[in-house]
Design a protein that fits this description.
Chain lengths: ~240, ~600, ~110, ~120
C-alpha cells in the first residue's frame, strides 16, 4: 500500500471479552463503513464475522457501533465519520454478542412480539380493501412510524434498554404505536395492555437517543409518548383490566 | 457433528415465497411442525424486502385479470408457461387482499381512501400497488411479524447446502444445512420442503440483489437432478450505481422514474446518445436502454470509470431533491450528488426469469420438493414485468404452503436419507478447509467480469464459448482453493467459497442456455442472431446435470394452452402493452 | 414502571407545577433583605390555607420522589423490582412523616 | 480499550443530556428535601430554629441554598419540558423546550443569588 492513502480502523474481535484489532485499509473516495469491513474480511482477515444483506439501507442487517455511535454501515460514508483518518467499529450494544461484529437479534424480535408489534385482523370484509384516507389522523400517525427497517440502532442507543433488561425498547414500542393507530386492527386495546405490562412503554424516560440515531429518521420517542397517553387514558377508563 | 432434526415441513428462505409458504401451511393445519431455515435473519435477507416499485394486480373495474395475463405473456415474448402465468394473475388478486386484511400491510391510497395503483413499464393499465417506494419493507415486515407470532421453528443463519434424496429413491428426504453461527452441520428431515432461496444474478459484475443471494437453490436443484428452464433470461436494469472498486453499493438501483421524468444519460464527453438508438431516447424500454449504454461503454465512449452519467440537474436540483427524496438521500449517503451533479451508472443484473421447472401446484420433479419465487422458472418467460416479481413469490409461496399441507394430509411421510449422499455433501461443503489457502477474492472478481463481458447484455457465440471454457477452468481453480482460516463459526469467507461454487455452476447454465438460444428475445440478445424468430414455434431451453457434473442442454415447445400468438383474451385489442415509455412515476 | 406509578409520578409532577412556582416566588421575596425566623413564621402561623398548600406539596413531593427513587434504584443500582418498590415506599413514608412535622411546626407550633 | 469506552458518544445529544440533568437534579432534591423538612420541623423548638436560620445567613450557606433552589428550578423546568413532550405531543419544538428549560432554571437561580446578596 505504499504511497496510497490509508485509513486506520480498529475492529472489535471475539466475544464480549474480546478486544480491538487494528487494520490499515486503502482510503477511497467512495467508501462506506461496510466497504471497510468487507475490505478487511476479503483482504486482511478472512474470518472477520459481520452481517449485511441488501447493501442499500432497507434490510437493517448491517448496523454496528461506529466511533461510539450505532449506525447503518452500508449507508454511512467513511468521510462523514472518520476522525483524523481513523474509525472504530464495534458490534451493536444491548444485544448478546455472537462474535466480532455480529449480535444475536433474537431478544429484539421477541420484544417486538411482546409489544404486540403486529397486525390482528379486524371484522372488516376480507374481500375488499378498507377505505382509509391517508390523511386521517390515525393513519397519518401510523404512516409516520411504520417505515422501520428493524435495524436495532435505536435499541442499541437506548440506555433504558441497558438499565432494564425487560424494557421492550424503542423499535418494538414504535411498531406497537403504528399498530394501535391502524383502524383496521381487531384488538387495539390488546396493544395497550401489551405495552403496559412489565418492561412496557412507561419505562421510557424520553432520552430521545432513539430518535437521534434512527437512520431513517423515525421518532420512537414521539410514538412512545403516544402510547403513554393512550394507555393512561385506557387505564383511567378501566380498559386495561385483564 | 451432524445434528438431525425432524419436522413436517421445511421452508428454505424468508422472502415472499418462504414466508407465505410457512403461513399458509400453518393455516391449513395448525398442528403441523414447521421449520424455516434462512441464510440471514428471518425477513431481513433476500430481495422481496428490497422491492421498491410495487406489486401488479388487476383490481380496478376497467382492468381485468385477462389484461394482466396478456401483458405478462406479451411482455414475456410468448415464452411463459401460460398456466403458471394464469395462476399468477389470478392469485395476485387474492394475495393482495390477504396482505392487507390478514397481514396488515397498508398500501398507498388515493386521498379518498381507495387503493392507489400506479403505472409501471410495459403494462396496458395502471395496476401496480405500492407503499411509497419501499413496498418490500412493508410486505416483508408484516409477513415476518405474523411468522414470529406463530409456533414456527426458526433456524436463522442456517445455510442450505444440499438436497438429500431418500435411500429408496422415492423422493426427497430432507436438506443438509450449515449453522453459520456455530459452523455445525444439521440435517433436517421433512415430509415436504419448499425451496424459496430466491435465485439472484449475483455473478455479474454489476447486480442489484442482496448479498446473501448466490443461486444456491438453483445449484442444489441441479445437483438433485432437477431441470432448470429459461436460464439465458437474465434481466438487466439500466441504472445501477457505479461507485468504484471494493464498494458494496456498486450495482444497486437508481430508480427508473429518473429517466421517465426527463433525466439525461450522458456519455463520457457529456453528450446524450439515446436518440441514436431509439426515438424515445432515455424513455425507451429497459432492454433497449441497457443495450445502448453497454454499447457506448464498449465503444470507448464511457466515463473514466467505464460507466455512463445520469444527470437530473437540468430539471432543477430542488425539484429533483423533492421528487426523488429517497434516491437523492441514498446517493448522498454514498457520496454522490444526484440532484445537482452527474452520477455514474451502468446497467445492472436484476432478476432471473429462469429457474427450476415446476407445476401450478409448485411441485417439482423431485417428490417432496416444492419451489416458489425467483428460484422457479417459467412464469415470466423472456422478460419479467416490473411488479410481477413480488406477485410471483407471494402467490406461489402460498400455493406451495397449501400443497405441502395437503400432501401431508394425504399421507406423505418421512423418507430415510441416503447416508452416502449425506456424507458426500458434508465433504463437499468442508472441502475448502482441506485445501491449500488461495485467493478466493480474485476468483470472484474473475467470475464477475467474465459473466459481465461474455454472457451479459449483448451475447455472441464466440464469447459464450470462451465464457464456458473459462467457467470450467474457474470451477477447477475454485475447487482447489482453500481457506486461510480454519474457523468454522461465522466464517464469512467459507460462505463466500460456498456462494462462489453455486454461482459458477449456475453461471454455466446461463452461458449454455444463451449459447443454445439462437434468437433475440426479451432479456436475451444475441448480436449474431438479432431477430426474435417466429412466436408460433417458440421453444424454451432446459438444462439439467448429467454424469460428472456435465450440463445437458435441451429445449421444449411452449404449449399455448390459453392463448396463441396473434390472438388475445381481450376483446378488440391485441393485449399488447403500449410501446410508449413509462410515465414519470414508474420505477422498477 | 407500572402504568399506575407512571400516572402517579407524572400526576404529582403536574400538581407540583403551580405549587413550585408559588413556593419559588415566596422564597425570592423572603430572601430579599435576608431571612429571619420571625418573618417566615409570621406569615405562616395559624393559616389554614398555608397549611393546606404545604400539606399538598409534601404529599405530592413524597409520592413523586418516592417513585423517582424507586426507578433510579431499579435502573442504576440494579435492585429487583420488589426491593426497589420497598425502598421507594419507605422513602415516601419518611418524607411524609418529616413533611407533616414540618408543616405542623411552621403553621401551628 | 474496552467496548464500553467508546459507546458514550451515542449519548452526546441534547435529549440525553437533558434527561441526565433531570435525573441528577431529582436525586439531589430527593436528598435535600428531607433535610429541608427537618430544618423546618425544628421550628418546634423555636430557639434552635432561629439559630439555624442565623446560620443559613452565612454566605457559604447562602451559596449552597442558591444552588439547591437552582436545582429545583432546573428540575422543574426539565420536568415541564418532559410533560410537554409526553402529554402535549410537542415534537418539533423539543430542542426549543430543552434550551428554554435550562435557561429558565439558570435564570431563576441567578435571580435568587443576586437578590440574596
Ligand atoms: C432492488 C430490487 C428491487 C425490486 N423491485 C421489484 C418490484 O418493484 N416489483 C417486483 O415485483 N419485483 C421486484 N424485485 C424482484 C423481487 O424482489 C423478487 O423477484 C422476489 O421478491 C423474490 O422473492 P423470493 O421469495 O423468491 O426470494 P427472496 O425474497 O430473494 O428471498 C430469498 C431468501 O432465501 C434465502 N436464501 C438464499 N440462499 C439460501 C440458502 N442457501 N439457504 C437458506 N436460505 C437461503 C435468502 O436469505 C432469503 O431469505 C426487485 C428486486 C430487487 C433486487
Ligand atoms: C414541579 C415540580 C416537578 C416536576 C414538574 C417534576 C417532574 C418530574 C418528572 C416528569 C419526572 C420523570 C422523569 C423520568 O421518568 O424520566 C421526575 C422525576 C423525578 N423527580 Fe421530579 N418533578 C418535580 C419536583 C420534584 C421534587 C420536588 C423532587 C424531590 C423531592 C423530585 C424528585 C424527582 C426524582 C428523584 C425523580 C426521578 C428521576 C428519574 O427517574 O430520572 N421532583 N420529575
Ligand atoms: S426505529 Fe429506526 S433505529 Fe429503530 S429499528 Fe426502526 S429503523 Fe432502526
Ligand atoms: S432512547 Fe430510550 S428512553 Fe425512551 S425516548 Fe428512546 S426509548
Ligand atoms: S445491508 Fe441492509 S441496511 Fe445495510
Amino acid at each position: 500500500m505504499s504511497g496510497e492513502k490509508t485509513l486506520g480502523v480498529d475492529i472489535w474481535r471475539g466475544g464480549a471479552d474480546g478486544r480491538y484489532q487494528s487494520f490499515e485499509v486503502p482510503a477511497r473516495e467512495n467508501q462506506t463503513v461496510l466497504d471497510v469491513v468487507t475490505y478487511v474480511q476479503r483482504h486482511l482477515d478472512s474470518a472477520l464475522a459481520y452481517r449485511f444483506a441488501c447493501r442499500v439501507g432497507v434490510c437493517g442487517s448491517c448496523a454496528m457501533t461506529v466511533n461510539g455511535r450505532p449506525r447503518w454501515t452500508c449507508r454511512t460514508h467513511v468521510s462523514r465519520v472518520a476522525k483524523a483518518g481513523r474509525l472504530t467499529i464495534a458490534p451493536l450494544q444491548n444485544l448478546p454478542l455472537i462474535r466480532d461484529l455480529v449480535t444475536d437479534m433474537t431478544p429484539f424480535f421477541d420484544k417486538w412480539q411482546r409489544a404486540r408489534g403486529r397486525f390482528v385482523p379486524g371484522e372488516g370484509p376480507r374481500d375488499q380493501l378498507a377505505p382509509v384516507p391517508p390523511d386521517k389522523p390515525e393513519r397519518a400517525a401510523a404512516s409516520a412510524a411504520i417505515e422501520c427497517i428493524n435495524c436495532g440502532v435505536c435499541y442499541s442507543a437506548c440506555d433504558v434498554v441497558a438499565w432494564r433488561d425487560d424494557y421492550l425498547g424503542p423499535a418494538a414500542l414504535n411498531r406497537a404505536w403504528a399498530a394501535w393507530n391502524d383502524v383496521r386492527d381487531g384488538d387495539r386495546t390488546g396493544i395497550l395492555k401489551a405495552v403496559s405490562a412489565s418492561g412496557g412503554c412507561h419505562n421510557c424516560h424520553t432520552h430521545q437517543s432513539c430518535a437521534a440515531h434512527c437512520p431513517v429518521s423515525l421518532n420512537p420517542t414521539f410514538s412512545i409518548a403516544g402510547l403513554k397517553r393512550a394507555s393512561i387514558k385506557a387505564k383511567l377508563k378501566g380498559e386495561l383490566a385483564p | 457433528m451432524l445434528e438431525t432434526l425432524r419436522t413436517d415441513i421445511l421452508v428454505i428462505g424468508t422472502g415472499g415465497a418462504g414466508l407465505f409458504a410457512a403461513l399458509y401451511a400453518k393455516k391449513a393445519n395448525p398442528d403441523l411442525d414447521i421449520t424455516i431455515a434462512v441464510k440471514g435473519l428471518v425477513g431481513k435477507s433476500g430481495c422481496t424486502r428490497m422491492v421498491q416499485g410495487g406489486y401488479n394486480v388487476a383490481l380496478a373495474a376497467e382492468d381485468s385479470i385477462e389484461r394482466h395475463f396478456m401483458d405478462t405473456i406479451v411482455g414475456g415474448k410468448w415464452l411463459p408457461n401460460q398456466d403458471l402465468a394464469w395462476a399468477l394473475v389470478n392469485g395476485a388478486v387474492k394475495r393482495i387482499h390477504e396482505l392487507e386484511n390478514e397481514m396488515g400491510c397498508y398500501f398507498d391510497r388515493n386521498p379518498d381512501g381507495t387503493l392507489h395503483q400506479k403505472a409501471f413499464a410495459g403494462q396496458s393499465f395502471d395496476r401496480t400497488v405500492h407503499k411509497g417506494d419501499l413496498t418490500g419493507i412493508e410486505i416483508i415486515n408484516r409477513l415476518a411479524e405474523q411468522v414470529w407470532a406463530r409456533d414456527i421453528r426458526r433456524l436463522e443463519e442456517h445455510r442450505a447446502v444440499a438436497f438429500i434424496p431418500a435411500r429408496d429413491g422415492s423422493g426427497l428426504s430432507g436438506v443438509l444445512l450449515v449453522d453459520i453461527r456455530s459452523g455445525a452441520f444439521r440435517f433436517v428431515q421433512a415430509k415436504a420442503v419448499l425451496l424459496g432461496a430466491g435465485g439472484g444474478p449475483t455473478m455479474y459484475r454489476y447486480h442489484t440483489p442482496s448479498g446473501d443471494k448466490a443461486c444456491d437453490g438453483m445449484a442444489m436443484g441441479l445437483r438433485a437432478g432437477l431441470t432448470l428452464r429459461d436460464m439465458e433470461m437474465v434481466q438487466f436494469h439500466p441504472t445501477g450505481i457505479l461507485a468504484g472498486d471494493d464498494t458494496r453499493m456498486t450495482g444497486t438501483i437508481l430508480e427508473e422514474g429518473l429517466r421517465g421524468s426527463g433525466g439525461y444519460l450522458l456519455d463520457g464527453a457529456g453528450e446524450r446518445f439515446m436518440f441514436n438508438y431509439h426515438p424515445h431516447g432515455e424513455r425507451a424500454t429497459r432492454d433497449i436502454v441497457s443495450r445502448a449504454m453497454y454499447e457506448e461503454v464498449r465503444a470507448g465512449r464511457g466515463t473514466p470509470n467505464g460507466g455512463i452519467y445520469i444527470r437530473m440537474a437540468h430539471l432543477g436540483p430542488e425539484k429533483v431533491a423533492k421528487q426523488f427524496k429517497g434516491m437523492v438521500k441514498r446517493c448522498a449517503d454514498c457520496g454522490f450528488d444526484l440532484a445537482g451533479g452527474d452520477v455514474e451508472v451502468l446497467p445492472t443484473a436484476h432478476y432471473m426469469m429462469g429457474g427450476i421447472e415446476f407445476g401450478t401446484d409448485c411441485r417439482t420433479a423431485l417428490e417432496g420438493l416444492y419451489v416458489a419465487g425467483e428460484d422457479s422458472g417459467g412464469v415470466h418467460g423472456a422478460n419479467r414485468l416490473g411488479g410481477n416479481g413480488v406477485a410471483n413469490s407471494t402467490v406461489f409461496g402460498g400455493i406451495a404452503g397449501d400443497a405441502m399441507a395437503d400432501a401431508i394430509a394425504q399421507g406423505a411421510s418421512w423418507r430415510e436419507p441416503d447416508a452416502s449422499v449425506l456424507e458426500h455433501e458434508v465433504g463437499r461443503a468442508l472441502r475448502p478447509f482441506g485445501q491449500k489457502p488461495g485467493n478466493l477474492n480474485s476468483l470472484r472478481e474473475r467470475l464477475l467480469d467474465l459473466m459481465w463481458d461474455k454472457a451479459g447484455i449483448v451475447r455472441e457465440e464466440k464469447l459464450l464459448k470462451q465464457c464456458l471454457d473459462e467457467l470450467d477452468e474457474l470451477s477447477e481453480r475454485h475447487a482447489a482453493t482453500g481457506l486461510s482460516d480454519p474457523t468454522r463459526t461465522f466464517n464469512p469467507t467459507w460462505h463466500d467459497w460456498l456462494n462462489l461454487e453455486s454461482m459458477i455452476l449456475v453461471s454455466k447454465t446461463i452461458a449454455q442456455a444463451a449459447l443454445a438460444r439462437e434468437d433475440s428475445r426479451g432479456a436475451h440478445y444475441r448480436s449474431d442472431f438479432p431477430e426474435s424468430g417466429a412466436f408460433e414455434t417458440t421453444r424454451y431451453t432446459t438444462v439439467r446435470m448429467g454424469d460428472e457434473e456435465t450440463l445437458k442442454i435441451g429445449s421444449e415447445a411452449v404449449a399455448f394452452t390459453i392463448v396463441k400468438p396473434g390472438e388475445s383474451l381481450i376483446e378488440g385489442e391485441a393485449g399488447a402493452p403500449p410501446e410508449i415509455a413509462p410515465p414519470p412515476q414508474a420505477a422498477q | 414502571m407500572t402504568p399506575l406509578s407512571y400516572l402517579l409520578q407524572r400526576g404529582t409532577a403536574m400538581i407540583m407545577v403551580p405549587l413550585i412556582v408559588t413556593h419559588l416566588i415566596v422564597i425570592v421575596m423572603a430572601v430579599q433583605g435576608g431571612l429571619s425566623a420571625e418573618e417566615i413564621l409570621g406569615r405562616t402561623r395559624g393559616s389554614a390555607a398555608w397549611a393546606g398548600f404545604y400539606a399538598l406539596f409534601v404529599l405530592a413531593a413524597a409520592v413523586h420522589a418516592g417513585i423517582g427513587l424507586q426507578t433510579i434504584a431499579r435502573e442504576w443500582f440494579s435492585l429487583s423490582d420488589r426491593a426497589a418498590a420497598i425502598a421507594g415506599h419507605l422513602f415516601m413514608l419518611a418524607l411524609i412523616g418529616l413533611g407533616a412535622r414540618a408543616v405542623y411546626a411552621v403553621v401551628w407550633a | 480499550m474496552s467496548r464500553a469506552t467508546v459507546i458514550k458518544a451515542s449519548r452526546a445529544h441534547p435529549g440525553f443530556v437533558a434527561a441526565l440533568v433531570h435525573r441528577l437534579s431529582g436525586l439531589a432534591l430527593a436528598i435535600f428535601l428531607p433535610v429541608h423538612f427537618l430544618v423546618l420541623g425544628l421550628a418546634l423548638e423555636g430557639e434552635v430554629f432561629s439559630g439555624v436560620i442565623a446560620w443559613t445567613n452565612q454566605p457559604l450557606v447562602k451559596v449552597s441554598e442558591a444552588l439547591l433552589v437552582g436545582t429545583l428550578a432546573v428540575h422543574f423546568a426539565g420536568g415541564t419540558r418532559l410533560l410537554a413532550i409526553e402529554f402535549f405531543a410537542l415534537e418539533r419544538a423539543q430542542a426549543f423546550w430543552i434550551s428554554a428549560a435550562f435557561a429558565f432554571g439558570l435564570g431563576f437561580s441567578l435571580l435568587f443569588a443576586m437578590r440574596a446578596f
